[in-house]
Amino acid sequence: MQVQFIKWLAVFIVIGAMSSNAGAKQYNVSSPDEYNAIASSLEAGDDVILQNGVYQDFEILLVGQGSAEKPITLTAQTKGKVILSGRSNLKLAGQYLEVSGLVFKDGYTPSSAVIAFRKDAQTPANYSRVSEVVIDEYSNPDRQESDYWVALYGKHNRFDHNHLTGKRNKGVTVAVRLNGEAHQENHHSIDHNYFGYRPVFGSNGGETLRIGTSHYSLSNSNTQVINNIFEQTNGEVEIISVKSGENLLKGNVFLSAKGTLTLRHGNNNRVEDNVFLGNGVDHTGGIRVINEGQVITNNYLEGLTGYRFGSGFTVMNGVPDSPINRYHQVNNAQITNNSFINVSHIQLGAGSDEERSATPINSLFANNLIYNASLNQPFTLFDDVSGITFANNVANTKMIKELSEGFTTASLPLVKGENGLNVAKLNEPEVKGAETKDVGVASNMNVVSKSDVGVSWYPKIVPEVNFAAGKTISVSADAAELMTALENASDGDVITIAPGTIVVPSVLIIDKTVTVTAQTPKATTLSFERSALFEIHDNGNLKLEGLVLSGKDSPDAFGNSVVRTKKWGMLHNYVLNVENCDIERLDINHSFNFFTSGKGAFADDISLSKNSFNGITGHVLSLDKEIEDYGIYNAEYVSITNNTFSNISGSVVNLYRGGTDESTFGPHLDMQGNVLTNVGSGKRNKQSASVYLHGVQVSTLKNNNFNESEPVVVNHTVGEPITAITNNTFLNTPMPMIKELFAPGPHTAVLNDNVSTKANKR
Known about the structure:
mainly beta, disordered N terminus, 14-stranded parallel sheet, 4% helix
């Protein structure tokens, strides 16, 4: 009897103890089984404390009926010391529930969301709160498998002071769902969160925050998004996608974030007191305006480089009688007291085409400040803007004639306020008119800081690829020694190889950031006996420098590569840098590429510089694995500079982005100072091109020499691609072939100062 009593007492101590609050209980649990034993009996005022530790495959369902005075709480024993890993998630259902202090990492959700404010479609959470929770790199390993990290349902819920960073798979980071009246006019608060790094996704589906969907976009959400920080949230062109009405977006800060706050659907939203600091980073944007009754006031935008739908400020054209999922006409937009400091592009009537022909009406652009240190005026008009009234704006640049009224042009000395923002000294004599005193943002505008958002106990770090951050490991010209060094290397290490020749018997897996270089440039030769020498896996980044890379010992089979990515299942973006190497004898059989991307793999950057490529039966860079034409491409930035290419059967680069989606930034190609001789004429080169670009958004080909080669072939698709082919020499090589596959009329590429000695026979 005594033994049984002791046993029950032990269970009582582990699972819970009575609280001093009138019937409320405190439960201390240390396993999923212990939690599930008490989960169905939770009542108002009860506290559940998860003991410190790592919980694997823990699906938490917090269900109960708390009250404003006595919520049901679930928290960590020590904030940040309760780790939910593997296939874990959290669901809340009921009312007045509070969760705090948890960390999700080293896994991914087994359901549609990591955190969902509902049990099922019939059982949402109301008046509930999730605070001081971290979700870090908790991404499905299949990058095209979609999920949310947070799905808000119900009404009057709060998501605050959380830290979310590193979402890599498809799907919105935080989604406000409006699936029916129980979730509309919800009055949620999303505040004081840190939204950290989200890498470029490379297709649609990379938003950080979405409020509603097109299907429910004429419904009101009444969600408040206040005092959050978005740092390098680069997933796609829409950082925040508002698809509902009557929302407030106030006091948020965007730091070097590619994309825009987009009022995509829904009416009567208010965008106020937000700060956009692009720091000159590519594709950093501000605000995009669509639909009716939008108020955009007292926002500060600086150093934004984006253009078109991702520009510093965009007012769209709409579709007449638009379906609910297209573009409704801008009507009664109030754009006032905003400051545009060194913003490259302000675009009005954007997207104008045969379908999007409804120009903005009944709108006001007033009391705004425009300052560009370059004195370049930022406005581009794509259609009639007579439906926008311009009044009492001040600029330091001369305006285009269509906007000559409504702007005062003057020298504008800037001073930096205590909040770090620039304001113009509008009381200077050269600024005429007393009415200009209220132009731009308020000088006392509050700017939220990193210390105000997220949690204090988890670092706000933006990951960087640094090839020289680690130690140097010297090895002899020995395959086993090289393989051991790679296996034992840490991120940032440099492996330097002594002179000699190495025949590598196995594929070298790259799952860390590593540099492989020669102690003496060009005195170390690497050849390989497998179908590839290097294979990049998740977390892998590779730099090759000063090496001779030979295919002479490769298997007599088609489809070899010197470097390739993992064929399937790549989640992490990678970087490949090849510098001052000689690549030769990739000719043992046909279709031997230097680099081959796997399907679904995505490179942030691929760089070839000062290399020599000679004798290749395939492509140098094969970046064309998309076959579905969904816009899922293989590389964001490709840089090819000061290389020589000789006797290449395929293309120097085969870069493909299909589909008609307009939510991506790239691909980008920069190709300068290269010499190409006998490139592209192989019978298996289907495009018969020395350089093949399909759907590439930004292309620069400059100061290259093409000798006895096939032409550059460029297919423009959607997105108003920018192509500049200048100062190239085409010796016995046809001039570039440019096609517009969607836009009517002649191509938009710029071809200047090129020299050709052979007529284009195509």
